[in-house]
């Protein structure tokens, strides 16, 4: 194994400071990228998509569960498969407690083309509680690039609700989903962001940096307006 060079503590400190300067530059560049993402134009959804969930048939607006933002992870699960995608399962295993996202007025759900009676046993096997819906019989996966002529693909899509109107604001796939797995990572993909006062553009915040963060059982009433 080709291990790093062994040096003195002073030499390590110099090298560490050199790398730190690059890390800080990358963080500032990422903040600027997130701000540009929050300023993306959006597309109004006018197709009446339907999904099957544990409570029966629902529409896209129902997936928001009363909140303003919705993150959909299009989980690769073809109707002919007995189990979901391993890579998608790895991603879902790394999703944090949803109370933190919900405290920022954001819902996160999984959507797959597999029928609900195939999804539910696999969900129980994995021990997940995240809401999961079937889009079988709907154009939803096709319209957002999660199902193509080549088969299933993993995609993450973001939506914003304003009154009765729903807008598609962002989608990513491939390595674009690598950054997910924490509440901040998901919020950085949304049009409202973390809603902290240091973020650009202004006018979408209601708190200082981490001023909203609580233990996940201490949020009380989740934000839905």
Write structural notes for this entry.
- With 225 residues, the chain is α+β, with helices and mostly antiparallel strands.
- The protein has a domain at 39-187: Glutaredoxin, CATH 3.40.30.
- 30% of the residues lie in helices and 21% in strands.
- The protein is built from seven helices and ten strands.
- It has helices at residues 9-38, 60-63, 86-93, 98-103, 116-126, 140-143, 183-187, and strands at residues 43-44, 50-53, 56-59, 69-74, 106-112, 132-134, 147-148, 151-152, 155-162, 165-173.
- The strands form three sheets. Strands 1-10-9-4-5-6 form a six-stranded mixed beta sheet.
- The longest helix is centred in the N-terminal third of the chain and has 30 residues, at 9-38.
- The mean pLDDT is 93.
Q: Helix/strand/pairing class, anyone?
A: alpha+beta
Low confidence ranges:
none
Rg, Cα atoms, Å: 20 Å
The end-to-end span amounts to 54 Å
Sheet having the most strands: 6 strands, mixed
CATH topology (level 3) name of the domain at 39-187: Glutaredoxin
Instruction: Please identify the top-level CATH class of the domain at 39-187.
Output: Alpha Beta
What integer is the average pLDDT? 93
What general outline do the C-alpha atoms trace?
Answer: globular
Oligomer: single chain
How helical, in percent, are the residues?
Answer: 25-40%
């Amino acid at each position: 194994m080709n291990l790093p060079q062994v040096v003195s503590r002073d030499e390590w400190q110099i090298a560490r400071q050199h790398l730190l300067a690059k890390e800080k530059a990358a963080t500032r560049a990422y903040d600027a990228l997130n701000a540009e993402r929050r300023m993306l134009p959006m597309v109004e959804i006018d197709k009446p998509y339907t999904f099957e969930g544990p409570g029966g048939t629902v529409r896209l607006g129902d997936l928001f569960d009363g909140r303003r933002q919705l993150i959909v992870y299009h989980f690769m699960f073809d109707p002919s498969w007995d189990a979901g995608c391993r890579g998608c399962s790895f991603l879902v295993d790394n999703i944090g407690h949803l109370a933190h996202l919900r405290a920022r007025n954001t819902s996160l759900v999984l959507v797959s083309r597999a029928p609900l009676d195939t999804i539910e046993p696999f969900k129980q096997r994995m021990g997940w509680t995240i809401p999961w819906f079937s889009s079988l019989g709907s154009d939803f996966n096709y319209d957002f690039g999660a199902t193509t002529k080549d088969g299933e693909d993993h995609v993450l899509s973001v939506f914003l609700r304003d009154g009765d109107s729903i807008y598609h604001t962002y989608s990513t796939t491939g390595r674009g989903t690598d950054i997910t797995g924490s509440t901040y990572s998901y919020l950085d993909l949304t049009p409202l962001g973390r809603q902290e006062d240091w973020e650009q553009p202004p006018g979408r915040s209601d708190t200082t940096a981490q001023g909203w963060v609580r233990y996940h059982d201490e949020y009380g009433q989740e934000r839905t307006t």
